[in-house]
Amino acid sequence: MIDHPARVAFARGVDEISWVVATAMVLTEDEALELLAYLVTAARTQVDEAAEYGPLRLLTAARRLAGFLAPRVSPETRALLEGPIRQVPQTATGSADPEGYAAALDAVCRAVAEHLVARYGLDRDRSRRSAAPRSAWC
Fold first, then answer.
1. Which of 2, 36, 125, 137 to pair with 113, CA 20 to 30 A apart?
2. Residues near 27 by Cβ (< 8 Å), separated by ≥ 6?
């Protein structure tokens, strides 16, 4: 018989709070620190860069997060992380083709929203609700 991981952890002297925090973390501490450092330094860099680099840096952070998450998520979420999130080229900016760039970002937003709706079963209640206003996110 395989014992529950919490019982094994407690038997080894790990307190309950530490176990819950450790098992609930999606990122390791090192991964979280890397993402934090990237976001903070990108914010500082953005002060001196052209505004068009802001979305580029946010997409880079999203790709890094997707890379950290992919091995730990469901197949459906992995498909999102390895598909739509990576469809916008890493060097794309809005200067060459503003409409195309916005359309590509809209497609990624739509894919994320559709994934969340399906994952959390939000589409099951659609028939009982009036048309909801469009999300401010997409």
1. 36
2. 35, 65, 68, 69
